[in-house]
Each structure stands twice: as C-alpha cells, then as structure tokens.
Write a structure and sequence with these properties.
12 helices; 21 strands
Length: 413
C-alpha cells in the first residue's frame, strides 16, 4: 500500500519515474501474481517497469544469512545497478513514519547507539524516503480517497520477524497509552536530533580542552576522565574517528589505571595508555602484505590475528570471521593484504566475477572502513574477502577431502 501511494504521488506530480520490482520467490504463485500486478499497472500508466527474480532461499543458505538480510543484499545490489544502467538520479523507498518508529524501537531493544535512535534518515546518499512525514493511517486514508489498488504480502501478518512483532503487539499497546503516538514520536525525534547537535558541541569542547592533535599523534590527557563522570561511550565519541569500537573503549577504561604501556588497535590506529595520557598514532606500517606458508597456524595484519587449521570434519560457520575452504584448491604461500582497485573475485553463490569495490558498495561497507578491508590471495586468486565473503571457486563441495579453516579476531597487546 505504501509503495502504491508513493508511486501515485510521484506520477501525479509529473516526475519521470521507473518501478523496480524484486521477486524473491518466497511465496510461490503469490510472488508471481505480485509481479504481474505491478507490471500491468505500469503498462496502463506508461511507467517504465523493471523486474528481477532471485533465488533468495539458496542465496541465504550459501552466505549464512537470514532470509531478510539475503533479500536486502540482493535487492539493493540490483537497485544500485539500475541507477547506473538506466541513468536514474535517486532510489525512492516508501518508508513512512511508523517504519521509523519500529526501527527506533528495534535499535533500542538491541542496545543501539544514540545515532540509531534518530529514526530512518530522509536521505542516505542516493536513496530518498519522501514519505517519512506521513503515518500509516494517513497513507491508508490517501489510498482510500484515490481508490488505489494494492496487494498484501502475507508475511506481513506473521510474527516471525521482530519488526512485525512490534507492529502487531507493541505499537498498538503504546497507542493505548498515547493515541497520538506518531505525532508525539515525530516531535521526540526532532528533539533527539537537537540533542545530538548539543552532544556534538559538548564532545568538540572536550576535544578542545583535553586533546592535542598533530600530524603524527593524538594525545588525550587522563584528566578528562576525572573531570566528568566518564563513561566508555564518551571515550568512544572522542576517538570514534580513529575507528575504535565501543567494546574496545570499554576495555580501555577498565585498563586505565593499570601499568602503563597497554596497547589497543583499531583498523587504522593504535592507542597506548601512558602514565598521564592516552596516545593515539596511525599504524599504516602494520598493514604491509603478509605471506603465509603452508605450515603456519597464525598470522597477523593491522589489528587482526588469523588462525589457520586443517581438518576433514569442520562444521560450517555462522560467523563472517570464519571461512572454511577446500584445502586442495589452495596453493601456498598465500598472501594476506589490503584489497586494491581492480581486485575481483567470484562471491560465494555466484558464477560470475565481481569487483571487490562493487561488492563493498553493495554490502554498504562504510567509506571509513573500505581502505582497511583485507583479502586472502592464493596464486593470484582472491579466496576470501576477509570478514565478508569467500570465493565460490574455493568453497567446500561433496568432493572435498581436506578443509582449511581461517578465523580472524581482533587482538590487544
């Protein structure tokens, strides 16, 4: 319904638009009927129509993803490709105010940082969400007035997904407490965004008073920890630009009064606890390519350590930090290095090659993280984009006799 409202608004306003329909083939004939319904509508209104059918279940199994995450990866990779090939300026999705409420509640339940409690952004690069001002009720009223037709996805009625549980059980109870929940929530989000502005001002003031920065190092005086009730999350705000995680910041605070010299690593920097200061320096020299011989069981690059084990009985991992490959397809020595432009591989589940740069875009890897994504390379072939996806040519098959398991973990010194 929300997508049909958005399409009607765009068409009525005279915009040149196309419709992209992803058929995930999860509901048999219902999925096919949805596709045909949209195709006929676009033909009647002379709107460009694009459709794609995905083997979603197979893709999810191959890549150890939930059905939701698999569908998201597949559709956004295709959407982004359409933007380029068909020369569209934006991708518009029909998220509305209630979607934003559900997103905030989900992030809050899972302990999200303050940024994640601000709702869905109106614009994110080339993706726009023009309906975020409107509640689901407002969209229903518009659809009724315009006599719009739409099809309901049966999966929206189940409680199998966390978002649906919130939609069917939590939000209605909240509306019993506050019938104007959507309006109040929108005002609350506006206030949170204002609070975020003040938060940034406060963090900048702390940086100004307690941090010094030059081309070679950043120094934070430990006095800042005594000056305020210092939570690890505040430290994270101070040093997040150097790619330290909240978990590492918790470990730093726990170690602050121990013997000086303890070192913590992010993908780009190291932090050393000194007697009266915290000292942050780049560690690009730690990212030099590492050659791994056939007999090695450990290797390290940047802030990462890798263990290598050989076996005939590994179970398939559920973690992106673990890869199990066919031992007999790998040629040693192998190289662990930063990816570079022009690199390509065959992502698990795909029979065609893909540039690593395009793969990172499709998987929404932040710009700040891309320079430090690493790959494992054997005889000139990438066998694993470390932490993301193995190469389809090196996967374990029914004929595999020996396997190699690679596991990466961050380390502290």
């Amino acid at each position: 319904m929300d997508s049909m409202v958005m399409l009607d608004l765009f068409a009525s306003a005279g915009f040149t638009v196309g419709v992209a329909h992803a058929n995930f083939q999860l509901r048999g004939s219902e999925s096919d009927d949805d596709e045909e319904f949209i195709r006929e509508l676009c033909q009647r209104r002379n709107i460009s129509f694009y459709s794609n059918r995905f083997a979603t279940t197979e893709y999810a199994k191959l890549n150890h993803l939930s059905i939701q995450m698999a569908a998201r990866e597949l559709r956004y990779a295709w959407f982004n490709a359409l933007l380029e090939t068909e020369k569209y300026s934006c991708l518009a999705t029909a998220h509305h105010l209630n979607d934003s409420i559900e997103t905030v509640l989900l992030n809050w339940v899972h302990g999200g940082a303050s940024d994640s409690l601000l709702g869905i952004p109106v614009k994110n690069n080339r993706t726009i969400r023009p309906l975020l001002f409107a509640s689901r009720t407002a969209l229903e009223e518009y659809a009724s007035e315009r006599k719009l037709s739409w099809r309901e996805d049966a999966s929206n009625q189940t409680d199998a997904y966390g978002r649906n549980f919130l939609r069917h059980h939590v939000v209605p109870r909240l509306k019993e407490l506050n019938p104007s929940l959507e309006t109040t929530f929108q005002k609350g989000l506006d206030r949170l965004r204002a609070g975020q502005t003040l938060e940034k001002l406060a963090i900048n003031q702390l940086r100004k008073e307690y941090m010094t920065d030059d081309d070679k190092k950043v120094i934070i005086r430990k006095e800042v920890i005594e000056a305020i009730h210092f939570h690890p999350f505040i430290l994270w705000h101070l040093i997040r630009d150097y790619h330290f995680t909240p978990a590492v910041c918790e470990e730093i605070i726990r170690s602050i009064s121990e013997q000086p010299g303890k070192r913590f690593l992010s993908p780009t920097h190291q932090l050393v606890i000194d007697r009266t200061t915290l000292i942050i320096t780049p560690h690009d020299n730690l990212w030099k390519p590492v050659e791994i011989a056939g007999h090695q069981s450990k290797a390290s690059i940047g802030p990462w350590e890798m263990t290598i084990e050989s076996s005939t009985t590994f179970e398939f991992p559920n973690s992106n930090e673990v890869a199990v490959l066919d031992n007999d397809r790998i040629r040693f020595p192998i190289t662990w290095r930063i990816w570079k432009p022009g690199d390509f591989f065959y992502p698990l589940g795909m029979e065609h090659k893909k540039k690593v740069s395009d793969f990172l875009i499709d998987n929404k890897v932040p710009l700040s993280d891309k320079p430090h994504v690493t790959v494992l390379e054997s005889a000139g072939h990438i066998i694993w984009v470390v932490g993301y996806r193995i190469d389809n040519r090196f996967k374990v098959t029914a004929s595999t006799k020996r396997m190699l398991q690679f596991t990466v973990t961050p380390f502290f010194v």
